[in-house]
Amino acid sequence: MRKESAGVTEALLKSAEQEFLAHGFHDASLRRISAESGVSTNSIYTRFGDKAGLFETLVKPAADGLMQIYMDSVQAASDVSEVTDAIACGNQGTDDVLVYIYENFNAFRLIFCCSAGTEYETYFDRLAGIEESYYKKFAVQFSAGEKVDDFFIHVICRTGWQYVYELVSHNMDFEKAKLFMDDIRKYSYAGWKAVLGLT
Questions:
Q1: How far apart are the C-alpha atoms of 99 and 96, rounded to whole Å?
Q2: In the predicted model, is pLDDT for residue 2 greater than 60?
Q3: 92-109 per-position pLDDT tens digit
């Protein structure tokens, strides 16, 4: 078996990342990736199966990592009995998610902005669905007698992840993103207190 030339896969993945970021998955061209990286299209198919396999190689580790961080955060918040503890868990989870996204920023640009036509185009929806399931329980557990409408929770939870999408899609730098999310937390905390009748 021929020994793989050093740096070939790295060059290929870098070219693929730039192609997907520039054109999205649907309009990305394996021929352009091949030309840019100096790797034949046949070699791309051999290594990754197809264009979807190449895209998955770029995003799966980051996508799986974020999902684990988020699930751990939701579990931690679900295990507490005081609303202040649940909020603290949520704040820590938000911090952890934001740091992780910025450590893997291009992967999440691909997932959130360029993944139409792949299995990752529903990734945002999966995150929002997990959030919605948690907040339905949160609203029942910590309400001071106020019934929170399920549709309200659905929209608020999708909006919560929309904030993250906006940070990524606008290529906002990390320090500005942290300040933005701090303001969102204050806004959301006041809103939930009012909706749950805790004010």
A1: 5
A2: no
A3: 999 999 999 999 999 999
User: To which residue do tokens 């050093």 refer?
Assistant: 6
What does the alpha-carbon distance between residue 177 and residue 158 come to, in Å, rounded to a whole number?
18
CA pair distance 196, 121, nearest whole angstrom: 33
Euclidean distance between CA atoms 32 and 147, whole angstroms: 55
Q: Indicate the pTM of the whole model.
A: 0.91
Q: What is the 3-state secondary structure (H, E, C) of the chain?
A: CCCCCCCHHHHHHHHHHHHHHHHHHHHCCHHHHHHHHCCCHHHHHHHHCCHHHHHHHHHHHHHHHHHHHHHHHHHHHHCCCCHHHHHHHHHHHHHHHHHHHHHCHHHHHHHHHCCCCCHHHHHHHHHHHHHHHHHHHHHHHHCCCCCCCHHHHHHHHHHHHHHHHHHHHCCCCHHHHHHHHHHHHHHHHHHHHHHCCCC
Pick among 2.60.40.770, 3.30.70.260, 1.10.10.60, 3.30.70.1660: CATH of 1-49: 1.10.10.60
Give 21: exposed, middle or buried? Use CB within 10 Å, 0-12, 13-18, 19+: middle
Domain residue spans of the chain: 1-49, 59-195
